[in-house]
Amino acid sequence: MSGNTSYPIGVAGQSWRDAEKAQWLARQAIQRSYQQQVLVALEQVAPEFERQQYGELDYRQYGAGCYPLYAFSNGLAADKVTVLITGGVHGYETSGVQGAVRFLQTVASQYSQHFNLLVLPCISPWAYETINRWNPLALDPNRNFSAASQVAEAAAVVGFLKQLPLPVLAHIDLHETTDSDNSEFRPAKAARDGEVNTNWDIPDGFYLVGDSAKPAADFQQAINLAVAQVTQIAPADANGCLIGEPVSQPGVVNYPKKALGLCGGITEAPYVTTTEVYPDSPTASPEQCIQAQVTAIVAALEYLKAKGY
């Protein structure tokens, strides 16, 4: 852990009100295109994957646009198990989005005969465009996946998944841990909440976050073994931790996902994991990070196949 980092908005020890949130929003700017980098790319998916709009974010009042929210699926056949793949809960975590896109563009069709695949490639498109963790209201979708969610990005997903006629067997949620977690997002959160910030050490490599209620250790291990062929698995720090949490096995920590309102807790799936890659590592390129995400999805599917699903 490193020491406190201040933030240029607000007064230390006082949580933000509307004025501070407006000041934060005024600092945000569109830096890339959801339409061009995500939606256009998703025109190149296998024909058996149909696009379904499950919501829309109207952020014109914040100087942005309307963002359609899409899911891609090869159907929900009763004789196949269902696997959910989500990306872009945090829009700034680029390979989470692009990994989901790449999976749909390349190997997804190879698993259509075995699984119902449901892919939500970019849950937070405004945050993707502004390279941000929060939505325009300075709220983190990944602490707000619940039935009563007031965060539009999370509420849209929760409402959509409620309509699924079949249970979800596995959920792979694609994320990154970046240097900006310490330089921007953790200090901003502490300032917003009127708290003292203490940064964590950023793990150099890939790791997984399982669910402490259902850790599925063999499932996590199978994913890490596959990803280790693409990029390094993050070693624990001197205290035996990753992002401040004790490792449960090499390259894995566990969180109580449902209790924390995390995306990985939105289903009752027995197999759940959140991927975390480190795009700022001197040993990893953006392409390696995307490949690591795709490899993680494939390894999860291969594990389930080997289990007889």
Automatic annotation (TrEMBL):
Domain Peptidase M14, residue spans: 30-309
Keywords: Hydrolase, Metal-binding, Zinc
InterPro entries the record matches: AstE_AspA_cat, Peptidase_M14
Highest taxon of the lineage: Bacteria
GO terms, molecular function: hydrolase activity, acting on ester bonds; metallocarboxypeptidase activity; zinc ion binding
The UniProt record lists the keyword Secreted: no
Gene Ontology process terms (BP): proteolysis
Sequence similarity: Belongs to the peptidase M14 family.
Name recorded for this polypeptide: Peptidase
Species name: Arsukibacterium ikkense
Organismal lineage: Bacteria, Pseudomonadati, Pseudomonadota, Gammaproteobacteria, Chromatiales
